[in-house]
Amino acid sequence: MQNIEAVHTFEQIKLLADSRRMEILRLLMASPATLTHLARTLKQSPARIRHHILALEAGDLIEVSEIRKTGKVTEKFYRAKGGAFLLQEIVLPKSKKPAIIFSGSHDLALEEIAEHLSRHVTILSLPVGSLDGLVNLRQGLCQIAGAHILDETGEYNTPTIRHLFPDRNVELVTLAYRTQGLMLTAGNPKGIKKISDIAHENVKFVNRNAGSGTRLWFDAELKKQKIDSTYINGYGNTVKTHSEAAVLVSQNKVDVSVGLQAAAHQHGLNFIPLFEERYDLILPRENKKTLSPLLDYLQTSTFRAGLNTLTGYNASHSGEQVVL
Prior knowledge:
324 residues, alpha/beta, Arc Repressor Mutant, subunit A, D-Maltodextrin-Binding Protein, domain 2, 2 domains, eight-stranded mixed sheet, two-stranded parallel ribbon, 12 helices, 34% helix
């Protein structure tokens, strides 16, 4: 079985931006070939094919698989270094300021941190949910992730981190404790009081994306209460952030969603608290120097004062390291 190889550098991506080199690489993924074979297949001169072969070889995308000698003729067979290639690179702004890529669960406090530090560092967000954020961190697509995954043991994040990073030296730092609950249309005209009230045909719901900490909690709660998700009108309709969900509720496009108390407060919604959770930042130790502006800011009174203005946020453990 052949492997899929990740393309990590801009130099490799630039090589593959040339359609002729991409075509040569795809042919060599299928089977080894010589310059002569490739020239005949692509209807190009061997000299032109040789130019592209040398570039692909220098870019570590192909290699010589076999050398055959027939009399005075020597033929080199080339092959691709992978059965397929995954292009995996984020294009960052060109600036004197360092750029930090965050991926994971959407958080309102992080938005304010990014704004506060914007003169010194660019924090870019890829909100994909807690679980996919950790996967992105594992794959090197971000330098720091944010998660609030409740394990069946009742513990937040640490069991999941131990499972996903058994061979990596990572740290967990608590950003904040946050209150989540039912975000409801102002005045709550549908009279929703609890989770089971959502499972009615006349109640419109918007869900969070699969893999988000909120979605994982919600699905576990449905299972616990033996509520069939097929009875929830809008269970399959999803958004990626608490703010997106709150906006839909405020616009009366849906009646209810599960989300942050702070998001509900910002949009003038009714709110019924359901649980308090610990939201952690996860980072490989080798990234600590790059992330020092963010990590240092978590220790300041300015950050704690700002956090306390967000309804439903608790700063009492912010900046503390969680033991794995």
